[in-house]
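Entry — protein

Goal — fold tokens:
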Amino acid sequence: MATDTSFALARRLRAGETVYSAWCALGSPIVVESIVREGFTAAVLDAQHGLWDTAAIVAAIVSRALDFGAESIIAPMINTATDARAFAAVAKYPPLGERSWGPTRAMALQGKSAALDYLREANEGTLTCAMIETPTALANVNEIATTPGIDALFIGPYDLSTSLSAGKAQDILAPEVERAIDVICEAAVKAGKIPGIYCRDASRALAMARRGFRYITVGSDLGFLRDGTAAQLKTLKG
């Protein structure tokens, strides 16, 4: 029986809740902790473009691998069903995947002392989020969404807008980007998967929630730092 706190992110999303998450790139566990304590449900550690190394990720209680204790992995550039199957294979235990056993830290964080207790809940409780960021991924979105072991589709709107414009623009409000966002959300919902998206700010996040997205990251730690600094300097300069 799952405890009230075990695999909380998956439980809340699978129950239909809309979850707002922080996006953190600076590689600082104390920054993540400070932001999350303000009320975010979760934090994403950007190990693709951010400053996180393995030691910092472990200290922040999320993972280069699910064994460290992460409850979700957002994988960039999932372009085909083959990519999606490979992602599921490394993130899920059999029969969905081929994840190797060794979740000593993850078990402790989930309050599990018996291996089978963790094993029974891990595939449902750890979320695989496939990022849809390219025209190729968009063309294959239904196949990606229906891949066994994929739990969510997650949109990186800036990469998506860059790739859809063939590198000529980065307009996340362009008509073709807006259409693509709706197509991806619809594909996720149709497949019974969780639609997710990165948003630059809270107003965009609320707009995406109204359009059906349920796993939504908001801003970034660097953006929060810059905005707070800019506000103080504006006051000082009159």
The domain at 8-237 is CATH 3.20.20.60 (TIM Barrel). The chain has a mean pLDDT of 89. The longest strand covers residues 19-24.
